[in-house]
Design goal:
The chain is α/β, with parallel strands linked by helices. It is about 35% helix and about 30% strand. It has nine helices and 14 strands. The chain is globular and about 70 Å long. The two termini are about 35 Å apart.
């Protein structure tokens, strides 16, 4: 974050424990205003706990949290919109009535124009008079997103917003998030989808076992690891890489194999040796993807969680 950038959220030495488990451990974090700030980490790493502390649902045991320069106790509720990972709506209510209720609760007004805008954007205008219980899971999730954004908050916190959505709905939601960002809303977004984090987020923060392990732009994070990744397409596929010198790890992506070169090894020599074995259709030397960095930090358990 540049010296002239205003902070929407500041956490200083924040710690939160539940019984003997420290969920968040001495966390310091600054979220620049107007950015999309990605939260990543394995399940149980402390992402949701951090978000709930920012929203003031739970309080830290130690440390300080400021939102738009004010301590949480002095932050107006309409400034923050929140979509929790655990979805929950009053299913017996009609869609419009529910959205007006949430807007009055959070922002002190019905926000009729904003509700109309979002219902139309998500192709839900025809569902305004229906009860929530009659909607599909994906449609209900869109309604809950609208409930979070209709009061026009300056800070929007989204905990796994894409879970359960079909590809078309995901694209619509991504467009909505970027529309809000363009209008100046600060967005904190947690996701297990590293491709989404790479594409959408201005900054990426990774928490692992309650502690911050990454924080910065994707380019800055990748620079920490250097260009140590080969992506190749070869006749014979991954089997042709077995026993190849200079390789620390192979990730088989089907048509493409992603190779992590052993520290100190020459990638050109690795390619030369591979060329003696088989035909190379394509290759590139690049920095590791965010997925690969995630797995390097969190290990096999995190990789399993990614595909759970």
């Amino acid at each position: 974050m540049s010296p002239n950038t205003t902070a929407s959220v500041e956490l200083r030495n924040v710690t939160k424990a539940f019984a003997s488990v420290t969920a968040v451990d001495d966390l310091t974090l600054t979220v620049p205003e107007g950015s999309v700030y990605g939260f990543i980490g394995p399940n149980g790493s402390g992402k949701s706990t951090t978000m709930r502390m920012i929203v003031n649902i739970i309080r830290p045991d130690r440390g300080a949290i400021r939102v738009f320069g004010r301590e949480l106790s002095g932050t107006s509720p309409e400034l923050i919109g929140y979509l929790p990972e655990e979805r929950g709506l009053y299913r017996k209510m009609e869609v419009r009535s529910l959205l007006e209720f949430y807007s009055q609760l959070r922002g002190g007004r019905k926000a009729a124009a904003e509700i109309d805008h979002w219902l139309k954007k998500f192709d839900l205008a025809g569902c305004a008079s229906l009860k929530l219980e009659s909607l599909s899971k994906g449609m209900s999730q869109k309604v809950q997103f609208i409930a979070a954004v209709a009061p026009a908050p300056r800070l929007l916190i989204l905990d796994e917003p894409f879970t359960g959505l079909d590809p078309v709905s995901r694209d619509v939601l991504q467009d909505a998030i970027l529309e809000l960002r363009a209008a100046g809303t600060t967005i904190i977004l947690s996701t297990h989808d590293m491709a989404v984090a790479e594409i959408m987020c201005d900054y990426i923060f990774m928490i692992f076992q309650g502690r911050k392990v990454l924080d910065g732009t994707l380019a800055a994070i990748q620079d920490q690891y250097g260009a140590d990744t080969l992506r190749v397409t070869v006749d014979g596929g991954a089997a042709m890489l077995a026993g190849l010198p200079g390789i620390e790890r192979v990730r088989d992506l089907g048509r493409v194999q992603e190779i992590r070169v052993t520290p100190g090894a020459d990638p050109q020599q690795t390619l030369s040796t591979l060329l003696e074995r088989t035909k190379i259709t394509s290759f590139s030397l690049t920095k590791p993807s965010l997925h690969e960095i995630f797995v390097r930090i969190a290990g096999p358990a995190a990789e399993a969680a990614q595909h759970a």
